[in-house]
Amino acid sequence: MSPATETYEGIVSHTHQLPAAGLTLRGKNVLVTGGAGFIGSHLCERIAQDSPGRLVVVDNLFLGREENLVDARRTYPGLKLYRQDASDYDAMAAIVASEGVEVVFNLAIVPLPASLVNPRWTVDHNVALSTVPAELLRLGLYETLVHFSSSEAYGSADYVPMDEAHACRPSTPYAASKLAGDFVVLSYRETYGIDATILRPFNNFGPRQNAGAYAGVIPIVVNRALQGEPIVIYGDGEQTRDFVFVRDTADAAVRMYESLATRGQVVNIASGEEVSVNRLVRELLDALEVDVPIIHEGARPGDVRRHCGATKLAQELIGFEPRTDLRTGLIETVAWYRGTLSGGLDNSNV
Predict the structure, then answer these.
(1) Topology (CATH level 3) of domain 27-205+245-269
(2) What residues have CB less than 8 Å from 227, skipping those under 6 apart?
(3) Of residues 189, 187, 213, 216, the one with CA closest to residue 204
(4) Buried b or exposed e, range 153-173, using 16+ CB within 10 angstroms
(5) What CA–CA distance (Å, rounded) separates 115 from 109?
(6) What's the pTM value of the predicted model, to 2 decimals?
(7) Largest distance between two CA atoms of the chain
(8) Where exactly are the structural domains of the chain?
(9) Using CA atoms, how far apart are residues 165 and 163, in angstroms rounded to an integer?
């Protein structure tokens, strides 16, 4: 038995009481794992607007950066950051207990590109990152879990838009690990009655998306274009994605906490618009007002061919509607990168 289990054995409860209706984060002690990352830092800003009792971030800064929390701290100066691996059970139990945490938003993750290089480590780590918060919730150390999944769990689309009933056929170790984590959370819900919900976002974009190692398509294109370098697209570029603006996702996560109807459900958060990589690159170059060569190389292994998310369930449960369209979001994103990017990236393909 681990020290954390021994310490908290006395408050284990397998009968979980659902929170009262009319939920709000006002006055709540909230923890965000991965909160110094791209989506996590925007979520912290959104939570800060609701005046929580405490706002706590756990992030090992593998991808996240403390500078990402500047705006959240401007709204909520008392934000506390623990530089900690969120898969460490004993450390997380101690943080949750000492901070009196009531709500956990779980975004900590090892990203997809890492799984192509270190698949076993990625899978082991990502499953643990899902199991630890589920176990702490089972033990009664906090009240509610909002767990972040990934649209990669679906694999390539059989049909679009892809609803939550779409088959899941993950095509990379990362995607498989995210789906496994979802099933861990759902199994704890089924077995122990934990108060948990799962948000499944499609491709988020916006300011602060990681532009270093394991960068995504948008920061890669922006960085190379600003340096006058050619854009390299893997495959024919007609593979599609559904790009949803990061602040829309952050707001959806808070609203999922607020709605008891989301409990035990997996809910897509998407724009509902199917966009090819070729179109995305053209839109980015237009927003940047630059003209650089575009070249194509062989398709990447495990790359999904088609993605576009259905949002009917999110509309029904939380009234979700994406508020920022692709072009508007790209203009804001490009402006942010212009002011912050310097030097090259380790990744040069999209």
Answers:
(1) Rossmann fold (3.40.50)
(2) 344
(3) 216
(4) bbbebeebbbebebebebbbb
(5) 11
(6) 0.91
(7) 65
(8) 27-205+245-269
(9) 5
Phi-psi region of 130 (alpha: psi -120 to 50; beta: other; left: phi over 0): alpha
Structure tokens of 16? 């979980």
For residue 266, what are the β-bridge partners? Answer: 198
Give Cα separations from 295 to 158, 214, 218, 229, 288 (angstroms): 28, 21, 16, 11, 18
Indicate if 174 belongs to the active site: yes
Q: Which of 174, 192, 257, 337 is catalytic?
A: 174
What token pair was written down for 52? 């929580």
Contact 166, 177 (CB under 8 A): no
- Sign of CA pseudo-dihedral 293, 298, 303, 305: positive
Per-residue pLDDT of the chain (350 residues; tens, 9 = 90+): 444 443 333 333 334 444 555 799 999 999 999 999 999 999 999 999 999 999 999 999 999 999 999 999 999 999 999 999 999 999 999 999 999 999 999 999 999 989 989 999 999 999 999 999 999 999 999 999 999 999 999 999 999 999 999 999 999 999 999 999 999 999 999 999 999 999 999 999 999 998 765 568 899 999 999 999 999 999 999 999 999 999 999 999 999 999 999 999 999 999 999 999 999 999 999 999 999 999 999 998 888 999 999 999 999 999 999 999 999 999 999 999 988 865 444 444 45
